[in-house]
Amino acid sequence: MLSSRFSPPHFLPFSSRHFVRPFSSLSPSPSPSPPQPPPTISPPPSSLPLPLFLRPLSHSTSLSSLLSFHNWAKAQSLSQPSLSSDLLRQLSWFLQDTTSPHPTHPSTALLRTELNELYSLWTQRVEKRKPFQYIVGCEHWRDLVLVVQDGVLIPRPETEILVDLVQEVEGFRDGVWVDLGTGSGALAVAIGKMMMDGGNAGRVLGIDISPTAVEVARFNVQRYGLEGKVEIRQGAWFEPLQGLKGKVTGIVSNPPYIPSSDLPGLQPEVGWYEPRLALDGGNDGTDHLLHICEGLAAVLKPGGFFAFETNGDKQSEFLANLLSTKWRQLFQKVKVVSDYYGVKRFVIGYRS
Predict the structure, then answer these.
(1) Per-residue pLDDT tens for 121-168?
(2) Cα separation of 253 and 178, whole Å?
(3) Buried b (16+ CB within 10 A) or exposed e, 67-85
């Protein structure tokens, strides 16, 4: 899907999105392998709009017209000095996702939408600050290309660390794992995909209260052929886990953790567009985190693992201290893990 793209004269060279991150990233990822498309691409449910990057190449234009668009879009991007570096990089990705050379007519380019629509979409990106991922309909995350859309949180690179932490748990492929607040299904899909390596009995449950997130997550599960390994359920936090009390091998979560008072100060791509439901952590950002901490012991089996993401530093230290003192009889080996930038981002531990 992304590995074969042409470069008209003066087009920006290809840059792997996995190594040069878009606006929403807090930090780069050292992951060595670039994203790979799933083995098969099925159409989404009828209620889910077909993402731009998955649309057929059913439109065409002259190479000169496409070059004119590129020159215009480049000028638009350079008109925003504080964003121009990211915008130029995203413009290269935008052309890769929406265009392809014509197989028999070198002076013609194939498009996934009308050329006029490319102008409209790039205007939304530059002037309206709409997230690039919502425009093309995907985010490159770990070794995945995940469908995202309005109403679903765009997965961040630091959250990939949660997958690495799961991979370090002995015997993780044979257990039942839960991703609380699954959003696009990023964590659930990544863990399920690791479980496919070799025969095992493990499975993953992704939980989200948002109907939009549930639909998108199910589509991502389907795209990677993980229907037999990953199940997406709708509901609030632990509610859909009835019958699994004391049986869960591990729980991961990237819940809302931004203090409500900080939301107005978020960059426009985040504050204006991403779902408040996935961002707002209440007065001090810990409302949902505390709820998760309070429910862990009931569902984890003895020795069960947990790892969740926080706003960093003081928030992580507060929660780790709480788990180690107030609930010290329930948990062990509780500690804080830093992200790629050294921010104390994650709290991990085990059920006693």
Answers:
(1) 999 999 999 999 999 999 999 999 999 999 999 999 999 999 999 999
(2) 8
(3) eebbeebbebbeeeeebee
- Its pTM stands at 0.86
Cα 322 versus chain centre, distance? 29
- Give me the pLDDT at residue 186, please: 98
pLDDT for position 202: 92
33-64 confidence digits (pLDDT tens):
444 555 544 555 556 789 999 999 999 999 99
Query: Is the pLDDT at 292 greater than 60, yes or no?
Result: yes
Q: How does strand 230-234 pair with strand 203-208? A: parallel
Q: What is the torsional sign of CA 18, 23, 28, 29?
A: negative
